[in-house]
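INTERNAL TRANSFER SHEET
From: sequence group
To: structure group
Subject: EF-hand domain containing 1

Please process the attached sequence and return the structure record in the designated field. Keep the field labels unchanged so the import script can parse them.
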Amino acid sequence: MLRLVKTSFHRSQTLGYKNGFAFSRLPTVGFGGERLYVNQPTQAELDELCYTGPTLTYGEAKKITPSGFVPAHVAFDKKVLKFDAYFQEDVPLSTEEHYRIRQVGIYYYLEDDTISVMEPVVKNCGFRQGTFIRRHRVPKNALGDPYHWKDLNRGINITMYGRTYRIVDCDPFTQVFLESQGIELNPPEKMVSDPYMERRQMPLRMYITPSDFDQLKQFLTYDKQVLRFYAMWDNTNSMFGENRPFIIHYYLADDTVEVREVHEPNDGRDPFPVFIRRQRLPKTFVDKKKTFPSCVMEISDQEVLEWFTAKDFAVGKPTTLYGRTFFIYDCDEFTRNFYRDKFGITDFQPVEIKKKPPEEVPQVIPPYNGYGFLEDSLQNCYSLFPKPPRKDIIKMLENDHKVLRYQVALESPNPVDEKRRFILSYFLSNDMISIYEPPVRNSGIIGGKYLGKTRVAKPGSTTDNPVYYGPSDLTIGSTIEVFGHRFIITDADEHVLNYMESNAESFPASTLQSMRDHFRSRQVVEETAKSNVPAPGTSIQELDELIERVQDELKLHNYLNFSSIREALLRCDKDQSGFLNKAKFLSICDSLKVPTSAALVNKVRRKGCCAY
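Return from structure group:
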């Protein structure tokens, strides 16, 4: 029975403090207070400490520094052993070869003892080449031991994954490395080549065929070589004929001819580039029988006695192709060199072609058809895309919203038209005239716009030199003919007189004087009406006619009560003279809502001094 001698099982303290800093120390006492000899100096160390006198006197002896450790992946980085080898592969399904020799390169990487097998790529070999065995540690036996560089040498067989490789040689670095490691290398061997690849690299047998029987010699010799001639076809004898330029191409490879038309801008012809497609052109036909058709789809050698060749084309001579005579006046530089080397021809002086200047055709403007303005219709004769005629912008800006208004009467044999009155407006900005007929109730005539804004030509003016009505032609009493209708100017606004006086230099003196006389007579009538005396020169019959016309016009207003109007006028006419002054007359009309702006009312007021 064992007795426990140890009574204390605590561990000694390994941490302590010195000068206020914590530090660690090795334990000197183990469990139970036993002394630990592990952390104590040995007797040899104690003896060495006893004999340190020379060290204290001369210092410590210098020791040789051991060499540092270098790992293999650093020492052998990018160092590869390369061996040339080959293996034989059976080809059972080929009649041209029974086996195949495939040359490979075996690479041994010293840094990690891995091996890779690479087959150089041969162009058009017929099978895939490149990496044959990827880089890894290749086992050499059933136990899985990998190949080492000591197992490799020249002139030996090495088996990897069931395939035997014959190593024949290595590169100089591999030879130096193996000899430095004490390995005796075998002598190098000659690389075995593949018999099928050698047979493929042999030059083919060249068969030379006489040129007389080689039909492809011309094609191989003159392929992509074309003669170019510049020609002109004179077709002026036919209707609408002209001189048309063409380019003749002669292909030396097969003796075919192509004719192309040269187009110019705005020549009026469809852009068809090929005039005669590329083909062999017959020069002389065999005597045809009467039964032979004159038009055939294809021409064979049996129908043609002679074809066109390069000898038939020359500069300065005409050539007839399919009934059309082309005059060749020039050629390009390649054609000159070809004829100089082939036929010895050196005369290539180009012929100058003088084109007849086109006859100047006078531009005849068709007669005006009456639609639209004359200037707009004239622009359609100048271009397909007519542009609007230019306008006088300064005149439009200066005379914008300036209108001269006249009262006109229609001159007509029809008695119904005698009482019709119109307002003629002349627009100074664009010299246009519009006519408006004020509507009159129960007159049987629909009023409104009679003539839209347009320029009115004077009688006798032509389309070549049109003359339009202007402000100087509009005088009191003058007659204006508007598209077959005659109008007489009977009155005008005061603005017309003011405008004419401010621009007196632009109007004839007779026009201005007629307008002044008209307004002077109006002023005299107004002054006479104020003095209750009829205007001098005004007959009673003329005044009665005006009053009757005014009454007819006022009857058109249904809202007027004529009895109340008469009573109001009689009340104002205290002396029973039958006349009222202008102020009283206008005040009564305004109170009874009688329209005083009518032209006839104003005329009665001027002539009759407001007689009722």
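Handover comment: Residues 509-530 form the longest helix (22 residues). The two ends are 172 Å apart (CA to CA).
Transfer complete.
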